[in-house]
Structure formats: C-alpha cells, structure tokens
Amino acid sequence: MEAFTSDKECLYYMKLLTFTLGIGMDVLHNYFEQKILNATEFYVFLETHKHYLFHECYPRVQCCCCSNNFLASSSKFGCLNKSQFQLLFDIASPNENDHCQIGRHNEITKDCLCRIDAKRSNGVDCMDITLMCAIIKSCFVNNNRSIHGNPRDFETIKNTRNFLAHVSDIRISESDFNSKWDEMEQAILAIAGAVGNYFAKATKRKINEFNSNELSMEKIKEIIESNADDVKKNLRDLIETQRENTLLVKHVKDEIIEQLTKHKDELSVDIGKLRFEVKQYSLAVTPSSQEETLDNQ
User: Its domain of life (predicted)?
Assistant: First the structure.
C-alpha cells in the first residue's frame, strides 16, 4: 500500500486525526446505538427529545411545549446550530393551524413543534463527534439524567477533534501526538467498556493494529468516504497535496533524465534554475591490472 508522507509532524497529525475519525467515531456510534437508543429507532429518539433539542438551537424562543415544561430563557445559550438541527429535522413553513406567534418585526416569538419532524432517513452515522456530544449533553447531562460511562470521556474525544480542526498548518509535534494519543486511547476504551467487555477488547486490538501499521492513502480515503465530520476536509487537502507533489517529482525526474540523455556529451546541463555539472574521470591503471591485461591478450 502507498505510504502517505515522509513529513513526520504531518504524519503525526494525519495519524491522530484518522484515529479520531476512524476507530474513535466507530466506538461512539456503537455506544450511541447500544446504550442511548437501546433498540429504539434513531428518529423515534429524536421525536421523543425534540423539545430539548429545539431549545438547544433556539434557546430564547418559546414553543408550544413550553406550557408543560418551560425551557426557553432570554439568558440561555444553546449547543446546536441551525445546520445541525436541520440535519436531524424537517421543518415545514408556518401555517394558520400552527401554534406559532409572530412578533412586530415578523420574527417568530413562539414556535410550534408540530411543524417539525425527525428525519426517518437518518441513522446514527449521520452524527459527527460534535453533534453526538451536543445531543448527549442536551438530552441527558443538562437534565441530570445518567448515562452509561463518564461524560468527560466524550468531551476528551470532542476536544481532541477540535484541537486537530484548528491546528494552523495541519501538523503537530511528537509530544502533542503522544499526549493526545494517550488521552484518546483511554477515553475510547472507557466508552467501549461501557458497551461491553468483548467490545472493549476488540477495540483494543484494533487500536494496537492501527498504531503499529503505517498510515496508507487507502485508509485515509476510507475515512473520508465514511465520515460525516467537516474536519475530514483536511484529509482531502493533504491527499491533493500528496498527489501534486508526486506529479511534480515525476515531472522533474523525467525532465532530468531527458536533458541528461540529450546532452550526455556536454560538460554541463541547465534544467530550470539548476545546473548539473557532468565530470569525466579516468580510471587509474595499476601495475597488477596492466599485467592482468597483458596476460589476457
């Protein structure tokens, strides 16, 4: 398989990001399906917790369900943005049968959840790390509802993802790689352990295998195709850089060979901004070699 790069700090970055989006995300999806949904359909879960999730996106807007459980607050800040909410729910336009109230500036002052439906086509794999952590926080942690495992382990994975997403030149030092890897491995294995002992052991074997093997272009492409996280664009950018560098090296190599072949009898060859000096050396003839030559004639 094709190795990705010889730049060590770039390789550390890619290894940690691929670990996070690959094994890390697989463990989180398995955890959510087994321990959060517990045989419930994902869209049913979203419908059940729609009120909480709505106010994570629109924290200051009252809704028709607030009469029973008032969640809106003028000082509240939510953990979901509109694009995340719209990924999970279909939102119909308001109509006269809804419970919506419109303010003086044509803004919705009280919304109606009846016009919002969870998308049936979604599965747990539509969630990236950030969205999953927001859903768990909104539906469980913020409402003092317990979950299997330690919520801090999810925060560790999310923080590592955010660290990698905001690295300026998509490379990290060896010390950062080692410390972040250790934190990630502990958090991932703890979450896998909450699913079950067998799953934790299988995950540990995958981590060991991944850590001992070279990072390949094929593995990176696999992560890109299967992951919903926007940070995977960094993987795309590095693949494109690798492709361009490979083409450049091939072009320069071909040009050097072509020019040296063409000017093999000249003493120097100019290729681009480089000058190649061609020197001729005569082999020294030793007495022993002369005798051998004479004897063989």
Answer: Eukaryota
